[in-house]
Structure formats: C-alpha cells, structure tokens
Amino acid sequence: MSVKKLSDLAKTIRSKNAGTDKITFDVIFREAEAYELVKRSGALTRETVAARLRIDPQRITDFVEYDPAFAIKFTILRDQPSGSAGDGDIFGAQQYAPFLDLEVDTAA
Predict the structure, then answer these.
(1) What confidence score (pLDDT) does residue 65 get?
(2) What would the DSSP string read from start to end of the chain?
(3) For residue 43, how far is the Cα from the chain centroid?
(4) What would the pLDDT profile of 41-71 be if each residue is shown by its tens digit?
(5) What is the mean pLDDT of the chain?
(6) Cβ atoms within 10 Å of 99's Cβ, excluding its own
(7) What residues pair up with 23 in beta bridges, in sequence order?
(8) From CA 50, how far away is CA 5, in angstroms rounded?
C-alpha cells in the first residue's frame, strides 16, 4: 500500500466559523487527479471525519464533494457557541490540524 498525507495532496486545508454554532472545513485540490484520488480512497468521508475529530457523526451537518472546484467541504456543530466562556477557538480557524497528516491510500 502506498500512502500520502492529505496535506501533500491538497492545495488548501482550512477551518473557519460558519455562524456562532458551526465550524466549516474546506479541503481544496489543485488538480482533478488528486481530488478524485482522495474521493476514491475513502480517506475523507463523514465517518472518517467524525473519527478524526473524535465527535459523534450526528454533529456533522453537511458533507459535500464539489466536483467543479475539486473541493470537499464539511461542517460540524460546535460544542458551545463561538465566543462563549471556555471557547478555545473563537474563529474556528485552528480546527483543521487533525487532517494534515491524514493518510490517503494512493493505490485506491
């Protein structure tokens, strides 16, 4: 099995606020080949996102593979509203890190 890290295949991996109660994630690829490889591999699905973030899959409100932009986007419900007491990332901008070293089977 040959593997690459998602961060080696994607042009952009980011997270950000999507209102006060959600965080959205974008994984964007430069070319169709890398995008299709990740889709085929099954490395990035609702189930793998939930496992990687250690959250209940019910917290994933959206999961979209957007072919025209070579992008995968998913949105999760926050534990608590953005900016509330105890919120450690008001902008949701540091939540993408668990996906940087996600292994993708390039033989898929």
Answers:
(1) 98
(2) --EEEHHHH-SEEEEEESSSSEEEEEEE-SSHHHHHHHHHHT-SSHHHHHHHHT--GGGEEEEEEEGGGTEEEEEEE-SS-TTSTT-S-TT-TT--GGGTT-EEETT-
(3) 10
(4) 999 999 999 999 999 999 999 999 999 999 9
(5) 96
(6) 22
(7) 17, 76
(8) 18
